[in-house]
Amino acid sequence: MTRVELDEAKAQALEEKFDSEVRFRKLGPVATQLVGVLLVALSLFHYYTAGFGLLQEVTHRGIHLAFVLGLIFLVFPMAKGGYDGSLAGSALRPLGIPLIDWLLAAVAVVAVLYVPFTFQEIAFRVGNPNTTDVVLGGALIVILLEATRRSIGWPLPIIAMIFMAYALFGRYAPGVLVHPGSSFSNLINHLYLTSQGVYGVALGVVATYVFHFVLFGVLATRIGLGQLFIDVASWVAGRYAGGPAKVSIFGSALFGMISGSSIANTVTVGSLTIPAMIRLGYPKHIAAAVEATSSTGGQITPPIMGAAAFLMIEFLGVPYQSIIVAAIVPACMHFFGVLCQVHFEAKKRGLRGLRRDELPNLREVIKTDWPTVIPLIALVTILVMGYTPYLAAFWGITLCIAVGFLNPRRRMSLMDLFVAFRDGAKYALAVGAAAATVGIVVGVVTLTGVGFKLSFIVTGTANDLALWTTSWLPAFLGDQGTLTLLFTLIMTGIVCILMGCGIPTTANYIIMVTIAAPALVLLGVQPIVAHFFVFYYGLLADITPPVALAAYAAAGMAGADPFRAGNTAFRLGIGKVLVPFVFVFSPSLLIMVEGFSWSGFFLGLFGAVAGILCLSAAFAGHLLVDTKHWERWVLSIAALLMVAPELYSTLIGLVVALPVLARHIVAWRQVPVAAA
């Protein structure tokens, strides 16, 4: 038996190397201790409130944001580089941190806490801010943009500044985008003193839900749950053709249940699977692409699913268990699509599975590591019972601590617990700043009404394209309404991918829900379906060049060309491209929709499975034997017909694909048994 152990230190180092959101400043010894204590204090604050009651809404969000912004200026440098010790202890660099960063941290804390601690007074002057309100609000906006730039880069702050400029100078905007414009004090009032801006729902979700699940994921990994998932995945899938690649898929699906992060998933699971894939014979760029594509499923795999899932329950007003149920089939379809292409690639290259001596002993694995799954089972059970997600996370974290202290195989010390609480808070800093900055965008949208104007532009353009298309397209292939929706989906998907190239998934989701999802709802798409559509397409940015962060992280680990790995990852993720269109036209696939029917569910599921299978074979160049060039085109056309919502189009797609399948069956039977 071969059992490769997860090296958590190595995985963390790789994550910091490839993910700007956790690329922290090198601190001196005293500063490290101080920052560590503050990070642990933030984790303890959320752990306590999750179990014993949240504070008043604005107070809870304010304390969270004060910690986040203050710590960002201590742990993220102004520019690339880090502490070199040359000015440690000087007046310009107390404890090795520049004085300007200490000042920015202090101003951020004061500006943030001003609102919750003077809320009773502020409530009476909302709409008529005084000078102090405007000065502190303006300072917070500037500091927030800088904190976001440091933690995730320029794109999101630039987007926020463009929206603020639009709010101030809307009278000069073209066409339907014109509006009277807002004064500076009125803009600050809306963004700073109301719950429609910085202190809005995005920050609230991060402070109320997301932080707790990030902390749970860190603790669950530390007690060995990640290792258990890898071992189980190896035993289930490793023996089949292209074994390590299939382990990557199953392992990433399981690990994604607790990580909720594409890059964390990539570097943790990939540290084991990428070298194994390369040793087995996969080209480096394919090994990197397989892991990256599998790992992007982490944010769509219940029960955790990353931050966007928790935002959905706030935006849609539905229970979290409804989001979990709705996510099951689309997540399975994503991993099914990757699995199909990996299998076809392995068969095409003649790659073997892992030998028995290379597989872990499942009985021994379960015997030694079964306690690590207790916290996850408890968390899911509490969620399904209808309790709040943060209470479920509280008990999940509590049981992680208990298992860590009681499990003799992976016993945690108090220092290990300190480090886990510290790292959990560090991983949540960037998403906290991003959520507050997205609040600026949402605030401008609610202040100016630009969301509905953009929806009008999108649907109008789609309708014009539909009119032009119906002038030459046969009527049975789609009416004007269907084509209008199709073109709206295509344009929305493209914008989601482009936005995702520069900003985190959570921020992308909030922006697109605010300005793009209303266009889909106007065309009759149910809100939960529209939200899932923009969520899925925002995730595609992690594997779509030119900024495919998950693919580039995997490429760095594999020593592959990043752009080539990104292109291959996008090809492997074709299921994630296709599935959102399927559940828009066949919403029963999400189960938790109005008008759900089992007939619609099974028809949509069959079409999705068959379509993904055909499209995967077309892209991989192999079904039962290698495909010919013309067969790829036939399979692609058949796939698009199969995923259409009507039964007749699915049947037509099957008829189109039958000649290719027949030739492959005949050719496969003629292959010598030894070669097969």
UniProtKB/TrEMBL annotation:
Key words, A-Z: Cell inner membrane, Cell membrane, Membrane, Transmembrane, Transmembrane helix, Transport
Membrane topology: Multi-pass membrane protein
This protein's record includes keyword Transport: yes
InterPro entries from the UniProt entry: DctM, TRAP_DctM-Dct_fused
GO MF terms held by the record: transmembrane transporter activity
Location of the protein in the cell: Cell inner membrane
Annotated transmembrane regions: 27-49, 61-79, 99-119, 154-177, 197-220, 323-344, 365-384, 390-406, 427-452, 472-498, 510-537, 543-560, 572-593, 599-625, 637-662
TRAP C4-dicarboxylate transport system permease DctM subunit domain mapped to chain residues: 141-592
Predominant location category: membrane
UniProt KW Cell membrane keyword: yes
Role: Part of the tripartite ATP-independent periplasmic (TRAP) transport system.
Protein name in UniProt: C4-dicarboxylate ABC transporter permease
Taxonomic lineage of the native organism: Bacteria, Pseudomonadati, Pseudomonadota, Alphaproteobacteria, Rhodobacterales
